Amino acid sequence: MGDDEVRRIAEDARYRKLLRRRGRMTVALTAAMLVVYFGFILLVALRPALLARPVGDGVTSVGIVAGFGVILFAILLTGIYVRRAARDFDPLVDALRSEGE
């Protein structure tokens, strides 16, 4: 890819829109993950007795369930990003690429 082509794409309004939209989504998903993760860490630090409680009559604790929830939340956020990228971002990238060829 030559300098002229890079400059043309960088100046394209659709490309700038793509960067803004993807950036906003990335910030939102990152913020959500940080809130959940640091919320869990704060629970570990400040309320360890709560996390040590068993769930029902079993040996599994609330902390194990909460930790598993953090992992599932991360997987969910990944799925949200992949779905949105495939639906919204990839078609725009393909259009920009095809115009350059």
Q: Structural class given helices, strands, pairing?
A: mainly alpha
Give the SSE order as H and E letters: HHHH
Largest sheet, strands/sense/barrel: none
Q: Helical residue percent?
A: over 70%
* Number of helical regions: 4
Q: Strand percentage, roughly?
A: under 5%
Average pLDDT value? 91
Q: What is the CA-based Rg, rounded? A: 21 Å
Extract low-pLDDT stretches.
none
Span between N and C termini? 10 Å
| Total count of strands | 0
Overall form: elongated
Question: How would you summarize this macromolecular structure in one to three sentences?
Answer:
With 101 residues, this protein is mainly alpha-helical.
Would you mind describing this structure in some detail?
With 101 residues, the chain is mainly alpha-helical. The protein contains four helices and no strands. It has helices at residues 3-11, 13-46, 48-52, 62-100. Helix 2 (13-46) packs antiparallel against helix 4.
Topology:
Layout: H1 3-11, H2 13-46, H3 48-52, H4 62-100
Descriptive labels:
single chain; 101 residues; mainly alpha
